[in-house]
Fold this protein.
Amino acid sequence: MKTVSTLKEIRALVDRWHRNGKTVGLVPTMGALHEGHLHLVRAARQACDRVVVSLFVNPTQFSAGEDFAKYPRDLKKDTRLVAAEKADVIFAPTAEEMYPAGFDTSVTVGPALTQTMCGLSRPNHFQGVATVVMKLLNLMRPQQAFFGQKDYQQTLVVKRIAADLNTGCDIVVLPTVREADGLAKSSRNAYLSEEERRLAPSVYQALKLADGILQVGERNPKELLDAVRKRLKTESKIEIEYVAAKNAETLEDLLILSGRVLVAVAVKLGSTRLIDNIVVDVPTGS
Ligand code: PAF
């Protein structure tokens, strides 16, 4: 497996694959890989002739005061993990390579998908994500790109740019991979103290409660959201950022819970921000 760090090298490599009729799968990551990422690499390996895993802690998607500087970075370990999954190439550029002097373009997705949920507390986050993902799609022109459901809002933003900007890339979203106690795998889980780690599964427990409430027929969003908030508040150390129930395709608020319903949560546990979600198919008219 090769590691390349320049745009010129990755473009030459991928262009050759395309010329030879190979299909290309891209797994965009910020490194600090865990089982969730590896699951994406395995799916890409199965679906595509060639697999690129990008490792790039993208500065433009972090707001001031967020964890850009302390975001875990371990290229050696990530390389070992990716090699074990038999990916073909790691693309690990520097920030200067991705954003050279004079860089002055960004991709903005409309407010319906970006000025809600995580977009409210993370100004410019989705603009940073959309811009870097678009750059990666332009560079590699993959037939498929693989993302995890944990970052649900991100997957909608990426699907939007892939379709609107005619990339021809199929955005594949795979289910969230969880620890045995339900905590969604995330590179940021490494920040949790022992006590916070013990409390963190409450987030998924609150989502499972929401699922149960929907299964027994609750269709009033307020009742559902109140129950989820109440469950989260049983842990005094959990600070709720948002609890949302939305149309899973458009992120519109729902007057009645029906169709594909996204229930999403963002909390702070100490200084660590955790997000998680479930999507429930609620029969219409029931
Ligand atoms: O999900 C992530 O790790 C990042 O947001 C992504 C998609 C790699 C863009 O930097």
